Amino acid sequence: MRKSVKILWIVFGSGIGLLLLLLLLINLRLIGHMPSLEELENPRTALASEVIAEDGTIMGKYLSVDRSNIEYKDISPNVINALLATEDRNFYTHSGIDPKATAAIPFYLLIGKKRGSSTITQQLALNLQADVEGKERAGNIFVRGFQKLSEWVIAVKLERNFTKKEILTLYLNTVTFGDNVYGIENGARTYFSKDPSRLSIEEAAMLVGLLKGSTRYNPRRNPQLALTRRNTVIENMIETGYITKAEGEAAKSRPIALRYNKLDHNKGLAPYFREVLRAEMKEWCKNHKKADGSEYNLYRDGLKIYTTINPRMQLYAEEAVAKHLTDLQKSFFQQSNIKTGSVWKNQKDAKKDLDRFVKESDRYKSMKEDEATDEDIEKAFNTKTKMKVFAWRSTTDPEKNEIDTVMTPIDSIKYHRAILQTGFMAMDPESGEVKAWVGGPDFRYFKNDHVFKSRRQVGSTFKPFLYCFALMNGLNPNTMLPNEPVTIGNWTISRNSEGSVGGSISMAGALAKSLNLVSVYLIKQFGAQAFANFANTKIQFESNKIDPYPSIALGVSELSLFDMMRAYTMFPARGVITKPVYITRIEDRNGNTLESSVPEKREVISEVNAYTMVKMMEGVTASGGTGARLRFRYNLPGEIAGKTGTTNDNTDGWFIGYTPQLEAGAWVGCDNNYLRFASTALGQGANTGLPIYALFMQKVFADKTLGIDPASTFPVPKDMNADMYFNYENNLPPDAQAEDVGNGSASDYETIDLRDYGEPAQQEPAKEKEKEPVKEPAQKEKKKDEPGTQPAPKAVMPPKPKSNN
């Protein structure tokens, strides 16, 4: 043998030996990072955590990459066939490495052609390596060569330990389909809005075609290239016999019919709810450990968060908000001070806030980073430019609620600050399960949630708690109360908000008509301190402490809608406060339950008093009550109780209502208090919050699948007379209007001596508009038998008077 030939054989043998040695060292995990068998069996790919609605549908995700796992049985055969025909025709005959394809690589390189030789198993090995090491395909030829050897070893291990179906499933769960979408399930849902089990031939072919180049063949960016690539995949399916030529030609003749719907935090049902849930889940992850002692990662650990949100009720809630605010916003924009922009010139706080809003804007920050001068910035903010702004255009498709326009950036800030905000929530008062949650008009433009985070003055929606306290202290719904001026400290409340004064009225009638004089009379009789103690120790508001000012009788306290909804459950839930719950359970990626919710309940009042309050609050929605339009305008049937609320100068509008099966509440207003309705007719809670509730309940009652029966009734306590009579009549002047038009504010009472209410005197800020001071003689010290000082028996209802007939 020639020496040169001998050297050639030695080099060749040494190369083979070195290759085998490297493979052995890699397999023994002595060099490189070889995933263990356990890691291969349970690949720790980054999985998005999913928010799941009551009916099992996915509402949204928290993710670093959009990835979900799926089982083989849930993948369409069309996907499997397209994949095998295009990526690995010998998949069922090789053992992880295709010898012929691998051996052919040098020959293709010699003639200047590129030929892929990686099997599906090798591609899966690369994906798993990337998941374990955090590294993608290497660019350096030497590093890539070493990476290739690792792929071979992993591929062989995969073939030995997994079935072919399991390998295909793992592969399809790890590949990317572009747009930060990973896995066949997300690919099918993102591009075609359907389950992967229902993908047609042409849809499956398009998705498999994306694997060659997720950007180049993206149908949204390059529709023609995507179509050509899809048809190539279909041709491969015909060649390999997976489909007939007729089926293939029919599939190629059809266009790519995208129904692109990529879930993100701005889209999908209940985005405000999901953002509140995100914050809670991040805290949950910090406080819960995995088996290895590490914290859960909301964005990578594939948690499944099962919620109580009912998709149909959520949709009805969003539609009700959109329908009502579309019309209400038009009226608000027609208001003179809003239309002309004078509100920004005439209000001191408005001028200061506008400057702050400018400095908080992205445009201002960007110009500052570019070292623009203050003069340049001011000029830019006063120069008209093209932009998109929020505008109500559709009640069913939030994507359409914006318009292209031309305006100055400063005007766009004023415009968006004048968009009416809202909070709406619906829940089961017995179980506490939250069914719907709308935190604002559009999450894309307005991030502040007005259900859980925002605190606003609650107005007359707070009065039922005072009337309940009166029941607990011996009064009953038919107790006649004076509708006369009331003096507390140095001030007199001389008339009701709508101007009525004089005579007397039953307690039930006073609540139905939301009469401020009667509420202030009650707080004077029972004491602000005693009532505040009841609110703080029994009801236990979580969003704010109730201060012992007499003005709390008129709802000056700032509370969240979530907190008010929790407190209102005491009435329909027979004296028991039920904390709203919106998570039923949390599971890990393998379906193991990590936590389940348990309802939190507390009995705060007797069942008799709760039922009495229900019947009194039904008077609000009856003829003559502040919420009567529920009946005569929206034609809602059945037993409905509730309360309207309007704060001073029509700043906040509220309505909270409930049936025996469902409680719901709405707040409407602007984030800035100086942006408010000038007209009480438009700004009162009966015209702002109530219609959202009414429109929502109309759809809920009409949808029989929800099981909310308008014929359901509030259960009567055993020890209570069911034949009750409520006297809503009164001797008020005939021209008195039963409208809830504002309750004043804490500042309506300047210097109030609280010593008569069990607490040292405190100061409250003075309000701009003048009040008539009335001299008040010194208050007498309370005797032990006066109301509010001793426990009183439960209210006993008088029977309905017999007819004279």
Characterization of this structure:
By secondary structure, this protein is α+β, with helices and mostly antiparallel strands. It has a five-stranded mixed beta sheet with strand order 2-1-5-17-18, covered by helices on one side. It has a five-stranded antiparallel beta sheet with strand order 9-8-22-21-20, with helices on both faces. Strand 21 and strand 22 form a beta hairpin. The longest helix is centred in the N-terminal third of the chain and has 25 residues, at 3-27. It is elongated. The chain starts with a helix and ends in a 42-residue tail after the last strand. Residues 131-135, 733-741 and 744-805 have low confidence and may be disordered.
Cα-atom Rg, whole angstroms? 35 Å
Whole-number average pLDDT? 83
Estimate the helix proportion, in percent: 25-40%
Give me the side-by-side strand order of the main sheet. Answer: 2-1-5-17-18
Proportion of beta-strand residues = 5-15%
Stretches where pLDDT is under 50 for at least 5 consecutive residues are 131-135, 733-741, 744-805
Amino-to-carboxy terminus distance: 134 Å
- Continuous helix count: 30
Can you count the beta strands?
Answer: 24
Main sheet properties? 5 strands, mixed
Classify the secondary structure makeup into a structural class.
alpha+beta
| Shape type | elongated
